[in-house]
Specification:
heterodimer; A: mainly beta; 4-stranded antiparallel β-sheet; B: 7-stranded mixed β-sheet; 11 strands
Chain lengths: ~110, ~110
Protein backbone atom coordinates (compact mmCIF):
# COMPACT_ATOMS: atom_id res chain seq x y z
CA UNK A 1 0.00 0.00 0.00
CA UNK A 2 1.14 3.52 -0.68
CA UNK A 3 2.24 5.56 2.32
CA UNK A 4 3.93 8.86 3.08
CA UNK A 5 6.32 9.54 5.95
CA UNK A 6 7.11 12.95 7.34
CA UNK A 7 9.86 12.57 9.89
CA UNK A 8 9.78 16.09 11.31
CA UNK A 9 6.68 16.37 13.46
CA UNK A 10 7.41 19.77 14.94
CA UNK A 11 9.99 22.28 13.74
CA UNK A 12 10.81 25.55 15.48
CA UNK A 13 12.84 28.20 13.67
CA UNK A 14 13.74 31.84 13.94
CA UNK A 15 12.92 34.19 11.10
CA UNK A 16 15.47 34.13 8.25
CA UNK A 17 16.54 30.58 9.07
CA UNK A 18 16.54 28.02 6.29
CA UNK A 19 13.93 25.28 6.21
CA UNK A 20 13.95 21.72 4.98
CA UNK A 21 11.07 19.35 5.70
CA UNK A 22 11.50 15.70 4.86
CA UNK A 23 9.00 13.57 2.94
CA UNK A 24 9.42 9.96 1.85
CA UNK A 25 6.86 7.83 0.05
CA UNK A 26 6.57 4.11 -0.49
CA UNK A 27 5.52 3.40 -4.05
CA UNK A 28 7.83 2.28 -6.83
CA UNK A 29 5.76 3.33 -9.82
CA UNK A 30 4.93 6.68 -11.33
CA UNK A 31 3.79 9.18 -8.72
CA UNK A 32 2.39 12.66 -8.51
CA UNK A 33 3.69 14.51 -5.45
CA UNK A 34 2.29 17.46 -3.55
CA UNK A 35 2.97 19.74 -0.64
CA UNK A 36 -0.06 21.35 0.99
CA UNK A 37 -0.05 23.98 3.74
CA UNK A 38 -2.68 24.63 6.39
CA UNK A 39 -2.35 28.06 8.02
CA UNK A 40 -4.03 28.48 11.42
CA UNK A 41 -7.77 28.65 10.94
CA UNK A 42 -7.56 28.25 7.17
CA UNK A 43 -8.15 25.41 4.76
CA UNK A 44 -5.57 23.30 3.00
CA UNK A 45 -3.82 25.13 0.17
CA UNK A 46 -1.50 23.77 -2.50
CA UNK A 47 2.10 24.94 -2.15
CA UNK A 48 3.56 23.05 -5.09
CA UNK A 49 3.28 19.86 -7.08
CA UNK A 50 5.38 17.50 -9.18
CA UNK A 51 3.89 15.50 -12.02
CA UNK A 52 6.87 15.05 -14.38
CA UNK A 53 9.83 16.90 -15.87
CA UNK A 54 12.29 19.01 -13.89
CA UNK A 55 12.61 17.36 -10.46
CA UNK A 56 13.15 20.74 -8.81
CA UNK A 57 9.78 22.43 -8.58
CA UNK A 58 9.04 25.92 -7.37
CA UNK A 59 5.86 26.83 -5.58
CA UNK A 60 4.23 29.82 -4.03
CA UNK A 61 5.75 32.04 -1.33
CA UNK A 62 9.34 31.08 -2.15
CA UNK A 63 8.98 27.37 -1.43
CA UNK A 64 10.59 24.69 -3.57
CA UNK A 65 10.84 20.91 -3.47
CA UNK A 66 13.12 18.37 -5.06
CA UNK A 67 11.96 14.98 -6.28
CA UNK A 68 14.69 12.36 -5.88
CA UNK A 69 13.33 9.14 -7.35
CA UNK A 70 16.18 6.95 -6.11
CA UNK A 71 15.50 8.04 -2.54
CA UNK A 72 11.68 8.09 -2.85
CA UNK A 73 11.87 11.60 -1.42
CA UNK A 74 10.22 14.95 -2.05
CA UNK A 75 11.68 17.35 0.52
CA UNK A 76 10.36 20.87 0.90
CA UNK A 77 12.78 23.79 1.22
CA UNK A 78 12.77 27.51 1.77
CA UNK A 79 15.99 29.50 2.11
CA UNK A 80 14.64 32.08 4.55
CA UNK A 81 11.43 31.57 6.54
CA UNK A 82 9.12 34.30 7.77
CA UNK A 83 6.84 34.46 10.79
CA UNK A 84 3.90 34.15 8.37
CA UNK A 85 5.12 30.68 7.35
CA UNK A 86 3.93 29.33 10.70
CA UNK A 87 1.55 26.55 9.67
CA UNK A 88 1.08 22.80 9.28
CA UNK A 89 2.71 21.31 6.18
CA UNK A 90 1.52 18.10 4.55
CA UNK A 91 3.24 16.00 1.92
CA UNK A 92 0.93 13.89 -0.27
CA UNK A 93 1.23 11.39 -3.09
CA UNK A 94 -0.98 9.92 -5.78
CA UNK A 95 0.18 6.61 -7.23
CA UNK A 96 -1.74 4.16 -9.34
CA UNK A 97 -4.89 4.21 -7.23
CA UNK A 98 -5.86 7.83 -7.84
CA UNK A 99 -6.16 8.27 -4.06
CA UNK A 100 -4.38 11.23 -2.51
CA UNK A 101 -2.40 9.84 0.43
CA UNK A 102 -1.18 12.31 3.05
CA UNK A 103 1.62 12.20 5.57
CA UNK A 104 0.93 13.02 9.20
CA UNK A 105 2.10 16.59 8.77
CA UNK A 106 4.85 18.84 10.16
CA UNK A 107 3.99 21.70 12.42
CA UNK A 108 6.27 24.68 11.73
CA UNK A 109 6.60 27.49 14.23
CA UNK A 110 8.61 30.56 13.21
CA UNK A 111 9.55 33.08 15.88
CA UNK A 112 10.43 36.71 15.08
CA UNK B 1 -15.40 32.35 -8.63
CA UNK B 2 -16.24 30.53 -5.42
CA UNK B 3 -13.95 27.78 -4.34
CA UNK B 4 -15.04 24.59 -2.63
CA UNK B 5 -17.70 25.27 -0.03
CA UNK B 6 -18.86 23.02 2.79
CA UNK B 7 -21.72 23.10 5.25
CA UNK B 8 -22.20 23.21 8.11
CA UNK B 9 -19.03 24.67 9.61
CA UNK B 10 -19.44 22.93 12.94
CA UNK B 11 -21.69 20.14 14.12
CA UNK B 12 -22.23 18.43 17.47
CA UNK B 13 -23.89 15.03 17.61
CA UNK B 14 -24.25 12.23 20.14
CA UNK B 15 -23.19 8.61 19.78
CA UNK B 16 -25.52 6.55 17.62
CA UNK B 17 -26.89 9.48 15.69
CA UNK B 18 -26.56 10.04 11.95
CA UNK B 19 -25.03 13.06 10.23
CA UNK B 20 -25.01 14.50 6.71
CA UNK B 21 -22.30 16.86 5.52
CA UNK B 22 -22.51 18.82 2.28
CA UNK B 23 -20.01 20.00 -0.32
CA UNK B 24 -20.23 22.21 -3.38
CA UNK B 25 -17.25 21.81 -5.69
CA UNK B 26 -15.29 24.58 -7.34
CA UNK B 27 -16.89 25.79 -10.55
CA UNK B 28 -16.00 23.51 -13.45
CA UNK B 29 -14.96 20.60 -11.25
CA UNK B 30 -16.70 17.26 -11.64
CA UNK B 31 -14.84 14.99 -9.21
CA UNK B 32 -15.35 15.22 -5.45
CA UNK B 33 -13.37 13.47 -2.74
CA UNK B 34 -13.94 13.33 1.00
CA UNK B 35 -11.30 13.13 3.71
CA UNK B 36 -11.30 12.71 7.48
CA UNK B 37 -8.66 14.65 9.43
CA UNK B 38 -8.38 13.64 13.05
CA UNK B 39 -6.65 16.00 15.46
CA UNK B 40 -2.91 16.02 14.88
CA UNK B 41 -3.13 13.77 11.83
CA UNK B 42 -3.05 14.14 8.08
CA UNK B 43 -6.24 13.84 6.05
CA UNK B 44 -7.37 10.25 5.42
CA UNK B 45 -9.09 9.47 2.12
CA UNK B 46 -12.69 8.29 2.56
CA UNK B 47 -14.03 8.06 -0.99
CA UNK B 48 -14.26 9.77 -4.35
CA UNK B 49 -17.27 10.50 -6.55
CA UNK B 50 -17.39 11.04 -10.28
CA UNK B 51 -20.43 10.97 -12.54
CA UNK B 52 -22.61 10.33 -9.49
CA UNK B 53 -20.81 7.09 -8.69
CA UNK B 54 -18.32 6.09 -6.02
CA UNK B 55 -15.07 5.48 -7.91
CA UNK B 56 -12.54 4.95 -5.12
CA UNK B 57 -12.84 4.10 -1.46
CA UNK B 58 -10.43 4.21 1.44
CA UNK B 59 -10.39 2.03 4.55
CA UNK B 60 -13.61 3.28 6.11
CA UNK B 61 -16.57 1.13 7.23
CA UNK B 62 -19.90 1.04 5.45
CA UNK B 63 -21.27 3.47 8.04
CA UNK B 64 -19.65 6.08 5.82
CA UNK B 65 -21.60 6.60 2.62
CA UNK B 66 -21.96 9.34 0.09
CA UNK B 67 -23.78 10.70 -2.86
CA UNK B 68 -23.06 12.98 -5.78
CA UNK B 69 -25.80 14.97 -7.46
CA UNK B 70 -26.12 15.92 -11.15
CA UNK B 71 -24.78 19.41 -10.36
CA UNK B 72 -21.61 17.68 -8.96
CA UNK B 73 -22.32 18.65 -5.35
CA UNK B 74 -21.89 15.88 -2.85
CA UNK B 75 -22.99 14.63 0.54
CA UNK B 76 -21.19 12.54 3.12
CA UNK B 77 -23.38 10.50 5.46
CA UNK B 78 -22.17 8.81 8.62
CA UNK B 79 -24.49 6.44 10.48
CA UNK B 80 -24.28 5.14 14.04
CA UNK B 81 -21.77 7.78 15.08
CA UNK B 82 -18.90 6.78 17.36
CA UNK B 83 -16.75 8.99 19.54
CA UNK B 84 -13.87 8.24 17.18
CA UNK B 85 -15.71 9.84 14.30
CA UNK B 86 -14.97 13.25 15.81
CA UNK B 87 -12.78 14.99 13.24
CA UNK B 88 -12.54 17.65 10.57
CA UNK B 89 -14.18 16.40 7.38
CA UNK B 90 -12.72 17.85 4.24
CA UNK B 91 -14.14 17.94 0.75
CA UNK B 92 -11.91 18.38 -2.27
CA UNK B 93 -12.77 18.83 -5.91
CA UNK B 94 -10.94 18.69 -9.20
CA UNK B 95 -11.47 18.49 -12.93
CA UNK B 96 -10.00 15.49 -14.69
CA UNK B 97 -6.57 14.62 -13.38
CA UNK B 98 -5.78 18.15 -12.27
CA UNK B 99 -4.92 19.24 -8.73
CA UNK B 100 -7.44 18.89 -5.94
CA UNK B 101 -8.73 22.02 -4.21
CA UNK B 102 -9.91 21.71 -0.63
CA UNK B 103 -12.81 23.28 1.19
CA UNK B 104 -12.64 24.70 4.73
CA UNK B 105 -14.05 21.54 6.27
CA UNK B 106 -16.80 20.64 8.70
CA UNK B 107 -15.77 20.10 12.32
CA UNK B 108 -17.80 17.19 13.72
CA UNK B 109 -17.85 16.56 17.44
CA UNK B 110 -19.45 13.37 18.72
CA UNK B 111 -20.35 13.35 22.44
Amino acid sequence: AQSVSQHNHHVILSEAASLELGCNYSYGGTVNLFWYVQYPGQHLQLLLKYFSGDPLVKGIKGFEAEFIKSKFSFNLRKPSVQWSDTAEYFCAVIGNTDKLIFGTGTRLQVFP
Amino acid sequence: DAGVTQSPTHLIKTRGQQVTLRCSPKSGHDTVSWYQQALGQGPQFIFQYYEEEERQRGNFPDRFSGHQFPNYSSELNVNALLLGDSALYLCASRSGSDTQYFGPGTRLTVL
